[in-house]
Amino acid sequence: MGIVKHLQEEFDYEIVDEFLDHYEVMIQMMENAIMALSSVERYKDEVEELFRIFHNLKSASGFLHLDSMHKLSALVEQILEELRTRHEPAPQSTIDWLLAVSDQYAQW
For burial by CB atoms within 10 Å, which of 21, 51, 54, 86 has the most? Predict the structure, then answer.
């Protein structure tokens, strides 16, 4: 059974539909925000945007009992919390890791 069908059996259709709509928007925003972490001018705004995205993903995936997504979202949120304290762009290795994370969310 696919994840969407499972969610639709476990939760109200409107909740699942709203999650999927928001999920798609967040995935689209995620990659651009990650790429902007290398910009001095955009860093602060984009790290805050990413923190908001992953916080929302963590909350929604927890509610929907999507355990793998919830755990990864919590990990990324912790890393972004650390990045929020930086006053310079993120290292390329961090950007590359976040892009790999973004790819995983796109696959889900």
Answer: 54
